[in-house]
Amino acid sequence: MENESRVRHPARVDAPHVNYASTHTAPLPVRSATRTETDSLGSMEIPADAYWGIHTARALENFPITRRPIAVYKDLVEALARVKQAAARANKELGVLDAAKADLIERVCEEIVAGNLQDEFAVGVIQGGAGTSTNMNTNEVIANRGLEIMGFEFGDYQHLHPIDDVNRSQSTNDVYPTAIKLAMVFGVKRLLHEHRKLTEAFARKGVEFADVLKVGRTQMQDAVPMTLGQEFSGFAHTLAEDLDRLGETIPWLNEINMGATAIGTGITADPRYAEAVCRHLSEITGVQMETAADLIEATSDAGIFMTLSGTLKRAAVKLSKICNDLRLLSSGPQAGFGEINLPPRQAGSSIMPGKVNPVIPEVVNQVAFSVIGADATVTAAAEAGQLQLNAFEPVIAHSILQSIAWMTNADYTLRVNCIDGITANTSRLAAQVESSVGVVTALTPYIGYAASAALAHTALTTNASIAELVVSAGLMTKEEVAHVLSPGRLSGLVPVTGVINVVQPVETDRD
């Protein structure tokens, strides 16, 4: 008789902005009753109701480092279940695993994908052993849930064994890298969705602010005029570039080494297994996987992780630069730029009444700093691999999965809590353009550089407007100046074509 009473159904929120890399600091619950399990190192007492077993228990003792279990990465847990499910199907197809056991493993894997048993994935995200503890944790959870379904006690592995059955034809060294690549594909697709929506939000602001003239700046100094719409459209195009770059990493992540087993030679696996498991994994996930041409190379190489991490860093740095601009453009509101208004999200000071800070761009900046640091970690870990295996894939996986999750959440909160609500301070922008010396640049084709420079100097020292000075000097009429300094021409939206004759200064007799 099947026993469903112990299956945990933790709440799972699927909103795109959920932080899938939240910190878990609470210790595992104290369980009074125990069962005894034995491995090659001896025996241990395991909580009687724990779905994990002795290998997980040893890892919990050995790696109390981050206090963050792999359960915080739901994509990774799902990917592990999918890999085990594909392996069970392949083993069943090849006749190397009893069909009833394979079907039971597949059933449990579906439960895990549905969100059950999440808390049983308890080993720390940073661990020695190249991911062995993660693989063992997965094997034990699947085996014990299978035993529970069959009506046997936890740990009664003669009926369904974590290694002989759940791990059949596998090694940590092909399961773990395949699972983390698949998890990264899940995460990158979610990130692409949010990054695209953020790009579209900036583009909408570009359209909204298309006719709002402002002063451009280079090196923090006033430059020539532009529109606020052009500025926001530029932000949108900057972000759009990273949609392509991030998307390009997915085909590389789809290359897996299942069937490699320990080092790439395929020892303990049927020669047909690599093709079968790859085919089943593709069918199950809807992600077209491909077996690497050289399984020995694929088992030791971490190149794709550096590529993905570097691409994430690129996107994060560019997004952070945009957030820097948003903070500058909204600075003040009285003594700063004050060109745009960010939505007020919360009180900004415990001592200064009425102060509101740009907290959303600030938090996105901090996400970018973290992604930059994570990339350095991935680079070091990839370099540190030795011979036929990289032992440091756990920190690579943690660093990249956290970066993906945090970037996804950052894109969401920047869009919803900031960009969508930005307004333009049109009166201030108009006043700045009218008083800007930078508009004289638009007149240089008509009056020459020397005259323009002299007028700019006069305007700066007298606070007179450029337009007035040009007219009073007799260089152009009021109508001509108004035409040349129209918003469309100043921003480049109306192109100037044809030959422009420079006004020659009138020579006068000197006494």
UniProtKB/TrEMBL annotation:
Chain ranges of the Fumarase C C-terminal domain: 440-490
MF (Gene Ontology): aspartate ammonia-lyase activity
Cellular component terms per the entry's GO annotation: cytosol
Record-linked InterPro entries: Aspartate_Ammonia-Lyase, Fumarase/histidase_N, Fumarase_C_C, Fumarate_lyase_CS, Fumarate_lyase_fam, Fumarate_lyase_N, L-Aspartase-like
Keywords, sorted A to Z: Lyase
Fumarate lyase N-terminal domain boundaries: 42-373
Stretch forming the signal peptide: none
Xref: PROSITE patterns: FUMARATE_LYASES
Gene Ontology biological process terms in this record: aspartate metabolic process; tricarboxylic acid cycle
Superkingdom to which the source organism belongs: Bacteria
This protein's name: Aspartate ammonia-lyase
Organism whose genome encodes this protein: Lacisediminihabitans profunda
Lineage, top ranks: Bacteria, Bacillati, Actinomycetota, Actinomycetes, Micrococcales
